C-alpha cells in the first residue's frame, strides 16, 4: 500500500517503488503451444460448427457408447420409464374402452356375466404396475390377462417386443462402455520424457514403454509420427503435417514382446525428420512426436491402442534411461519407481548430419568424457585420502588427550611409590 502524503513524501515513495521494480526483474512467460495428443493419449481437438448433426443419430449405438456415463445412465433410466408409462397409458385406455373402469361392473366381476380384459386394473396406477410386470416378466398373481379382448393381446405382444429391443440396446451399450478398448490402455504406460543419446555409434531418439498387467498385449507394435506445421513451396500452410519415422526393431514383423518394460529406439538417420536438428536447435523446434502402441488384449481379444506425445521441452539431450529389470532369486523383478529415471551420458551436441559428415566428433566427445571421468575419479581418491589423513590425525589427538598422567603415592613411612593407571 502507498503511504499517505502527509506522512511520507511523494518523492521517497516513487523512488522506493522504482527500486523494488529494479530488484525484481520481470519474466515474461511465453504462451505454451497446444499439443495435438495429450500425455494421457487424449486427442486435443475441438469440433466446431458441425451443421449435419443428424449423422450422429444414424449410428445411434455408437453415439450412446461415446456419451459420458452420466448421460448414458440418464438415457438408460428414461428409456425404461418412458416405455412403462407409454404402455401403462395403453393398458388404461384398453380397460377404459372395455368398461373395466365402470364402478357398476365392480360387483359383477366375480360373477360369470362380466370378464374384464385385465383383472384388477381399475386405475392408472394399477395399469402402470401391470405394465412393469409385463415388460420385466415379474408376475405377482393379482393382475392377469384374459381372453376377452383381442386388442389387449396385441398390446401385450407389442410391449414384449419393444421391451426386448430396449433391453438389448441398453444392456449392450452398458457392456460396451465397461469393456471399451481404451480402458485396457490405462495400464500401458510411457516414460514422461524421451531422450536422445548415442547407441551403436548413432544418435537415437528413445523412450520407454511398459505394461502394468500380467495379461499381455498380443502382436503389439509401435509407430512414431512427427507432427509439425509446414509450408509448401507453393505457399500452402499445412498445420498438421504427419511424417512416419521408422522404429529400430531387429524383428522383421515389427512386433514387440511386451513382457517387461522396453526402450523403443529410433535411429536418427537421413530418413528421420530429426536429422538436421542439434541440441541447441531442439528447444526452438515446433514439432511433436506422437507415439502409438497397438495390440490385441489377451483376455478379451479386443484391439486396443495407447497414445502419448513428446514435445521439444520433454526431450532430454545426452541422457539415458537407467536399467530397472534385475534378477532376484531366479525371478526377473521390475522396479517401476525408476521407470522414468534418466542419467546423463556423453553425447555430441551437434546434429546427426554433422556427426555423419565428421565422425571424429563422436571420438572427441567420448575422449573428453573419459578424461573427465578419470579426473573425477582422481578427485574422489584424493578427497578420500585427505579425509582419511584427517581422521587419523584426529584419532591421534583424541588418544593423546585421553592418556592419564602418572600419580605418586606417599606411604606413612615416607617411602614413595609410583603407579600408573
TrEMBL record:
Pfam families: IRK, IRK_C. Residues 188-358 form the Inward rectifier potassium channel C-terminal domain. It comes from Grallaria varia. It is found in: Membrane. GO terms for molecular function: ATP-activated inward rectifier potassium channel activity. It is a multi-pass membrane protein. Residues 37-180 form the Potassium channel inwardly rectifying transmembrane domain. Residues 384-401 have a biased composition (Low complexity). Its main location: membrane. Keywords: Ion channel, Ion transport, Membrane, Phosphoprotein, Potassium, Potassium transport, Transmembrane, Transmembrane helix, Transport, Voltage-gated channel. It catalyses: K(+)(in) = K(+)(out). Belongs to the inward rectifier-type potassium channel (TC 1.A.2.1) family. InterPro entries: Ig_E-set, IRK_C, K_chnl_inward-rec_Kir, K_chnl_inward-rec_Kir6.1, K_chnl_inward-rec_Kir_cyto, Kir_TM. Residues 372-421 are annotated as: Disordered. The record marks 167 as: Role in the control of polyamine-mediated channel gating and in the blocking by intracellular magnesium. This is KCNJ8 protein. The chain crosses the membrane at residues 73-94, 151-175. The keyword Transmembrane applies. One of its GO terms (cellular component) is plasma membrane. The gene is Kcnj8. It comes from the Eukaryota.
Amino acid at each position: 500500500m502507498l503511504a499517505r502524503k502527509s506522512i511520507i513524501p511523494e518523492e521517497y515513495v516513487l523512488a522506493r517503488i522504482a527500486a523494488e521494480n529494479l530488484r525484481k526483474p520481470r519474466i515474461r512467460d511465453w504462451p505454451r503451444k497446444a499439443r495435438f495428443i495429450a500425455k494421457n493419449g487424449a486427442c486435443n481437438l475441438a469440433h466446431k460448427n458441425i451443421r449435419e448433426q443428424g449423422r450422429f443419430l444414424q449410428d445411434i449405438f455408437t453415439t450412446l457408447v461415446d456419451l459420458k456415463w452420466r448421460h448414458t445412465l440418464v438415457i438408460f433410466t428414461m428409456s425404461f420409464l418412458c416405455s412403462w408409462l407409454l404402455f401403462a397409458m395403453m393398458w388404461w385406455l384398453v380397460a377404459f374402452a372395455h368398461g373395466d373402469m365402470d364402478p357398476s361392473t365392480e360387483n359383477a366381476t366375480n360373477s360369470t356375466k362380466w370378464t374384464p380384459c385385465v383383472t384388477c386394473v381399475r386405475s392408472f396406477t394399477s395399469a402402470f404396475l401391470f405394465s412393469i410386470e409385463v415388460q420385466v416378466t415379474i408376475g405377482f398373481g393379482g393382475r392377469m390377462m384374459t381372453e376377452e379382448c383381442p386388442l389387449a393381446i396385441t398390446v401385450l405382444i407389442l410391449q414384449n417386443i419393444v421391451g426386448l429391443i430396449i433391453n438389448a440396446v441398453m444392456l449392450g451399450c452398458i457392456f460396451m462402455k465397461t469393456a471399451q478398448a481404451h480402458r485396457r490402455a490405462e495400464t500401458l504406460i510411457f516414460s514422461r520424457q524421451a531422450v536422445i543419446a548415442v547407441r551403436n555409434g548413432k544418435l537415437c531418439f528413445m523412450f520407454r514403454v511398459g505394461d502394468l498387467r500380467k495379461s499381455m498385449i498380443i502382436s503389439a507394435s509401435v509407430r512414431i509420427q512427427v507432427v509439425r506445421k509446414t509450408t509448401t513451396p507453393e505457399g500452402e500452410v499445412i498445420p498438421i503435417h504427419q511424417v512416419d519415422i521408422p522404429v529400430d526393431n531387429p524383428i522383421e514383423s515389427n512386433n514387440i514382446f511386451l513382457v517387461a518394460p522396453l526402450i523403443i529406439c529410433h535411429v536418427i538417420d537421413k530418413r528421420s525428420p530429426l536429422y538436421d536438428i542439434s541440441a541447441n536447435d531442439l528447444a526452438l523446434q515446433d514439432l511433436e512426436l506422437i507415439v502409438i502402441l497397438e495390440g490385441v488384449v489377451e483376455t478379451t481379444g479386443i484391439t486396443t491402442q495407447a497414445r502419448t506425445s513428446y514435445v521439444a521441452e520433454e526431450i532430454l539431450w545426452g541422457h539415458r534411461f537407467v536399467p530397472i529389470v534385475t534378477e532376484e532369486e531366479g525371478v526377473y523383478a521390475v522396479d517401476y519407481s525408476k521407470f522414468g529415471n534418466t542419467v546423463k551420458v556423453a553425447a555430441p551436441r551437434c546434429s546427426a548430419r554433422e556427426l555423419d559428415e565428421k565422425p571424429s566428433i563422436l571420438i572427441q566427445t567420448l575422449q573428453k568424457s573419459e578424461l573427465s571421468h578419470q579426473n573425477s575419479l582422481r578427485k574422489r581418491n584424493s578427497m578420500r585420502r585427505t579425509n582419511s589423513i584427517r581422521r587419523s590425525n584426529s584419532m591421534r589427538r583424541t588418544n593423546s588427550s585421553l592418556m592419564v598422567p602418572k600419580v605418586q603415592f606417599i606411604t606413612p613411612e615416607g617411602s614413595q611409590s609410583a603407579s600408573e593407571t
